[in-house]
Amino acid sequence: MVPGTKGDTGPITRGSPVSLKVTLLGTGSPMPSPDRAGPATLITADEGAGGEPAEHYLVDAGRGVLMRLAACGLGAPNLTAVFITHLHSDHITDLNDVITTRWVMTFEETPLTIVGPVGTQAVVDHLLASLEPDIEYRIAHHEDLDHRPPVNVIEVRPSIGSDGSDRSDRSDRSDGSDGSDGSDGVVELPDGHGCRVVIKCGQTDHKPVEPSIGLRFDHAGVAVVAAGDTIPCAGLDALCDGADALVHTVIRKDIISNIPMQRMQDTLDYHSSPEEAAQTAAKAGLDTLIYTHYVPAMPMGGTEDDWRALGAAHFGGTIELGDDLHTVTINPT
Predict the structure, then answer these.
(1) Scanning 74, 102, 143, 171, which has the fewest C-beta atoms within 10 Å of its C-beta?
(2) Are 27 and 294 in contact (CB under 8 A)?
(3) Is residue 17 over pLDDT 90?
(4) What is the pTM (predicted TM-score) of this model?
(5) In total, how many domains does the chain have?
(6) What is the H or E stretch that residue 225 is in?
(7) pLDDT class for 14, splitting at 50, 70, 90?
(8) Does residue 3 sit within a domain?
(9) In-domain check, residue 144
(10) How far is Cα 208 from Cα 256, in angstroms, rounded to an integer?
(11) Residue 285, phi-psi category: left (phi > 0), alpha (psi -120 to 50), beta (remainder)
């Protein structure tokens, strides 16, 4: 059975049809788990609404992301855009798979938009270079595949610094054009790549990983923030101001601090604990806090209440967490 499902009923869902839905595609970490895919979150707008198709925004592309998307009845061709919060390996492990699968599973040239911090273009260029033999094989074999993988990269330079400082925002596309409005961190996607969701970015604090970004998705009176890996910082606070929900990676510092291994100890100073993420959510007056990226790995269907209790001491709203494919719907308040 696929993690996060009950029988044949599909992913566990809380709430009713809404304007924004959060699906925890992968709740794992750099440490491989048999039950948890790598970090990846799906933000969906207008699913099930009449008229235009839903918009699907993938935040990070950890290991197994396309398998988890398939469990949702989706694939790489359904993605409106991909967002990368930072360039740690566990958050981009399967970005090459997203690029390749989008290319071979669409039957007309359909560019994939990838948005990320400065350095994302170089990473994508290296990925495409590593895929060069496969690209040549497929073009030679498939007569109807007459183009290389089309990818548009937008590198964002947030106007909101991790310390809350005001910065001049600029987002540079791979085609040389500006990808933001230059003032408030709004990311402008290419024509035809989403139009109903307003997306903003702000700098987070994951040093020495720099830059790292958080993202805010606004649609129809609902706002969801995806923090990525960060400690509490003014940049994240600014993104959360007036939002409804926060998706935040968390590590159990109370456990890790007792592990006599330097590499584990090193994780303590650039991630948030459940308590710290809860304090960020409480400070912003949010309604919902969603934990993901559990370190150490949480047993399947196991100790959710322990993690939730740590946050509940600091945050009076709803705290969500669970297995891969756990889904939370966010209603206008």
Answers:
(1) 143
(2) yes
(3) no
(4) 0.90
(5) 1
(6) strand 222-226
(7) very low
(8) no
(9) yes
(10) 19
(11) left
In this structure, the number of other CB atoms found within 10 A of the CB of residue 92 comes to 26
Could you list the residue range(s) of the whole structural domain that residue 197 is in?
Answer: 13-330
- As a whole number of angstroms, the distance between CA 128 and CA 271 comes to 30
Cα radius of gyration rounded to whole Å, the chain: 19
* Cα–Cα distance list, 248 to 137, 229, 234 (Å): 40, 7, 15
Residue 2 domain flag: no
What's the pLDDT at 1? 33
Q: Mind telling me the catalytic residues?
A: 90
The amino acid sitting at 289 is: L
Token pair, residue 328, equals 């939370």
Across residues 270-274, what is the average pLDDT? 97
Please give the Cα distance from 237 to 272 (Å, whole number): 14
* Closest by CA position to 34, among listed 64, 54, 12: 64
Query: What token pair was written down for 232?
Result: 């509490």
SS3 label, residue 286: coil
Any idea what the CATH number is for the domain that residue 200 is in?
Answer: 3.60.15.10
Given a contact cutoff of 8 angstroms between Cβ atoms, the answer to whether 35 and 42 are in contact is no
